[in-house]
Specification:
single chain, 292 residues, alpha/beta, Rossmann fold, N-(1-d-carboxylethyl)-l-norvaline Dehydrogenase, domain 2, 9 strands, elongated
Length: 292
Amino acid sequence: MDIGFIGLGSMGGAMALNALKAGHTVRVWNRSPDAAKALAGQGARVVASADEAFAGDAVFSMLADDSALRAVLLDSGVLERAPKGLVHVNMATISVALCEELVRLHERHGVAYVAAPVLGRPDVAAAGKLNIVAAGADDAIARVQPIFDVIGQKTWRVGTAPQHANVFKLAANFMLATAIETTAEAASLMTGHGIDPHAFLDVITNTLFPGPVYQGYGRMIADHRYEPALFKARLGLKDVRLALAAGDAVNVALPVASLVRDNLIDVLAQGDGDKDLAVLGKVAARRAGKKV
């Protein structure tokens, strides 16, 4: 396939590279040019503008947040100038409200829109093992499935309404953040009673709560190891806020999300926003009067 890729951070860059390795033609553009140049040596064609990325069979975007997506695709007028019949696949975690707006605008301009946020961190993206949650027209998803097949291990189709994929992703990240919060609090409880949290987490992650979330983040919390960040706390806060907004829109209360949001605001206030989301362990320890 001939695709464009916009947004080449740790996630987007890994996905674009895997598409290149699979033999696809990939035109890349990034707001910071150095990230695009890094892929040139791997065979990517670096283009000078987002407009040039909107060509070929499809364009994929992986921008940081709502404001970045709005600036690059909407405020700039790129979407208005995009070729009719192109498929745009947005893989970023964005608000449900913006997704609904994008659906309307893509339809107006004759561009197919697929929302395909991913489950997995940069190391998973590099390995091509992401889980892709995709929603949009069946024919549009089918057209880009060859790319999904090389950047992910499975594509989970969740309907034809693109915003539903974003609700799925926000609910998943809300659950991830709350799992880390409860793990952090449990570790502090162990420490308060003079018990090594490693011992507790070894038992609990091999019995009641197995899996990468509790095992991986539990180990980081027990080790007080919050860098390098694979999922920055500030991005976790963004996603929890988006989950709360999605709940507000349909009168669904998320009281645990409110608590995690406040703790993540504490993280940013302490200057730890660029540390891994596991830094919630530091908040729990500080709240328990422990030096961290």
